[in-house]
Write a structure and sequence with these properties.
Number of strands: 0
Helix content: over 70%
Number of helices: 6
Structural class: mainly alpha
């Protein structure tokens, strides 16, 4: 029974830290987009929500979740403190490189990326590129952990 309680405690701690990193990623993405990201996802004033913003936000969350998963999975046999340290360090690295990648996509594409991906309506091709870049960069961070 002590093993079960210990594992359950670790699961709760990992979930809280992982959840905090995912919320941090969403907060950083909110800072990088014009207006309030939640409004673009929900749809302001009963207008249509932005499919592009939803796609990019989902990619950031999946990418960050993948990094958190990989850090925990590859360090689960170490002490809880060491595994959490790896999780936080690589989670923050993932958020940072996703920020750089988003800014790089903004530089190499015409227009203002933030405005384009927060426009109400269906997702536009640039949102797919931005989402793919977020997943790709997150996968690279995952590979560096393993």
């Amino acid at each position: 029974m002590p093993d079960l309680l210990d594992a359950a405690f670790h699961a709760v701690v990992y979930a809280l830290v992982g959840g905090a990193l995912i919320v941090l990623a969403l907060g950083v993405l909110d800072l990088l987009t014009p207006g309030h990201l939640g409004t673009h996802l929900r749809g302001p004033d009963d207008r249509e929500a932005s499919g592009s913003a939803g796609l990019v936000a989902a990619a950031w969350l999946v990418g960050t979740g993948g990094i958190v998963f990989t850090a925990i999975w590859t360090n689960g046999e170490t002490s809880l403190g060491e595994a959490l340290l790896w999780t936080v360090v690589f989670g923050v690295i993932g958020i940072a490189v996703n920020t750089v990648m988003l800014l790089a996509v903004d530089v190499v594409t015409p227009g203002r990326l933030g405005e384009i991906v927060t426009t109400p309506g269906a997702a536009v091709p640039l949102a797919y590129v931005t989402a793919a870049a977020a997943i790709a960069v997150s996968a690279v961070v995952c590979a560096s952990i393993a």
